[in-house]
Amino acid sequence: MKKRYLLLLAALLLALTACAAAPQPSQAEGPAAAPAQTAGWDTLSFDRTLPLQYAKQFSVSYAGEDYTRITIGEDQTFLLVAEGADVPSGVPDDVTVLQQPLSHIYLVASAAMDYFSHLDAVDRIALSGQKESDWYIEAAKTAMQDGSMVYAGKYSAPDYETILENGCDLAIENTMIYHTPEVIEQLQSLGIPVLVERSSYESEPLGRMEWLKLYGALVGKEDEACAQYDAILQQLDGVLDQTPTGKRVAFFYITTSGAVNVRKSADYIAKAIRMSGGDYVAFDEGGEENALSTMTIQMETFYDTAVDADVLIYNSTVDGEIRTIDELLAKSPLLADFKAVKSGNVWCISKNFYQESLALGDMMLDVHAILTDADAGGLRFLHKLS
Question: Mutual orientation of helices 360-371 and 268-275 as an angle, nearest 10°?
């Protein structure tokens, strides 16, 4: 009986061995499978888009899961290729290829840092166009202190050696770079793609903040970007839907020569004040149009137009913050005649405001609060002069 059992076991093992040695259906003899073909640019179908509500200066579209096309303005197109995916064949010369992950960015456009910070992606920036002392965004200061981000020169004088040593995979410049086109050419000749940030060209304040979605696309965090942007809009619901207060608001600073710098009526700050319920005091009605968003006028002109303004907001981002009415009057004693000065309705915007691009929503909430006499204790960017 035992002998018979052993014979059966041996036969079973022999059969199993034969099965293992036999070619499986997928391994049957025949021609080898052709290697996967690299996608061609002309075959890509960008049939999905990133939804935008207000931004007009960029668009994002997708071809499958591996390819993202980003357009900025009329002269910048990028193809973002997913990690591990092949670069398509036949990409046009005017399309810049970016290979994910982007992890050694040279950031010159300071307005973009806030977007990276909100997306918890400051670690993607290895090189800064500003020194540590020039940053107000805490995540940027910390990164420069611990050495994970290093200074690599300003827009007009990059430190090319440092940029190359750190393996830069993208330079994000502001529009000032157009004044030094040789820098763009040099960066590109070194194999470093250049993206020129144009959020400042958005005519709508809410469009500026929506650039969060572009940077979300660059770092693969579109869902987080969309969620944060929707939260900002929800926070502003009560402001955007309210009736204008009719209160006149002047936004300005005084130059070292005693002239007054103001924002033009089409500027995003002027629009933000109007969206917050204020009547922005304009100085350019019927004037010559140009690309500048600010204009400098004589104090006499400012006096004639803004002396009866209900609210004055001093722009401290250029020459530093002021805390008292006396400091303001030291810049121009004529301001003592202004209605807002006499009634104590003079405010100053904090110097870090322009680096915090997404803070525009908070600034609008601040302006709305002071126009509606709401509790001013929770203001983030405006403080009242004493």
Answer: 50
